[in-house]
Amino acid sequence: MIQGNNHGTINVKNETYVCPSSVDAANGRYPVKIMRKNQVLHTHTLETITKFQDCGPANDRGNALSVEVRWERRERIGLGAYGEVHREENCEGDQIVKSRAVKMLRRLHMEYLKVDYKKELDALMSLSQPEYLHMFVEFYSWYETPEKIFLAMEFVPCGDLSRYIGTGMTEDDARLVGYQVLDGIRTMHQLDIVHRDIKPANIFVVKAGPSWWVKIGDFSICKRTVTQQTTLRSQVGTDGYKAPEILSLVDPEKKAQYNAKCDVWSYGCLLFELITSYVPFTTIGALTDYCNKGSRLSGSRCYKPM
């Protein structure tokens, strides 16, 4: 069993219980307990959603409403070291198509890589509270089979930020996007969550320019810390955005030691790329030279991403 934090989300096997803590009586909305049961079939997922009105007005308490939703698996929209992501869609009675993104993780592969998916669940649940939804990809639910774990999340049709690199983003565009990403990093660190893989491919575009709106996603290798200064040691992240202390380049005689500030380095690399269409370091050699010799960034030291 995995239990969420202060917003009352509890997951047991393939069921998700959500008990919102806020009451919006002015709008006639009251907290309900939601139970989701997902049956994974060959080409689709059958999700049964039961809402229990046990937190609302006295005359509504005890009422339950169940709805079955058939999610059809569509195209693959993402592929990474820890799993793949597909778009799923369903049609309601009014024929409005709704989509969600579902990340599929293979148990044996996760065990081989020694990755604990519960950390990602914990981060997703912490950041899916209403006050954070403008900054982070919304998490809906999770379910599992004996071989796989599935994470159902918000589908962002504009894709990730990497597809917009080199398409003529202005400094104003970079400033607006950069502010939103930095605000998300600040919020994560206040919650003692270190992302450890900030890069354009993990920044999702809800609305493209000129009125940019982006969200941070993909918390596969995030880390919950005791404080922002907690020392971390695992060498994770993506080359080109990875902080030098993760690679022991700051003090080669010591093993990798770093903290939440690694996200700030990655953010700097991301911002540099937004403005120049290049990342400052794509080889460890270039990063080592910068750390050891204090060489300045120039056109000759900015390498085109592979």
Task: Give an overview of the whole structure.
The chain is α+β, with helices and mostly antiparallel strands. The chain folds into 2 domains: 153 residues, Phosphorylase Kinase, domain 1 (2-Layer Sandwich), CATH 3.30.200.20; 141 residues, Transferase(Phosphotransferase) domain 1 (Transferase(Phosphotransferase), domain 1, Orthogonal Bundle). It is built from 5 helices and 14 strands. The strands form 3 sheets. The protein has a 10-stranded antiparallel sheet. A two-stranded antiparallel sheet has the order 11-14. The longest helix has 20 residues.
How are the SSEs placed, and which strands pair?
Blueprint: E1 2-3, E2 9-12, E3 15-18, E4 33-40, E5 44-53, E6 63-80, E7 83-91, E8 97-106, H1 107-112, H2 117-126, E9 139-144, E10 148-154, H3 171-190, E11 193-194, E12 203-207, E13 213-216, E14 223-224, H4 261-276, H5 284-293
Antiparallel strand pairs: 1-2, 2-3, 3-4, 4-5, 5-6, 6-7, 7-8, 8-10, 9-10, 11-14, 12-13
Brief write-up:
The chain is of the alpha+beta class and 306 residues long. It contains 5 helices and 14 strands.
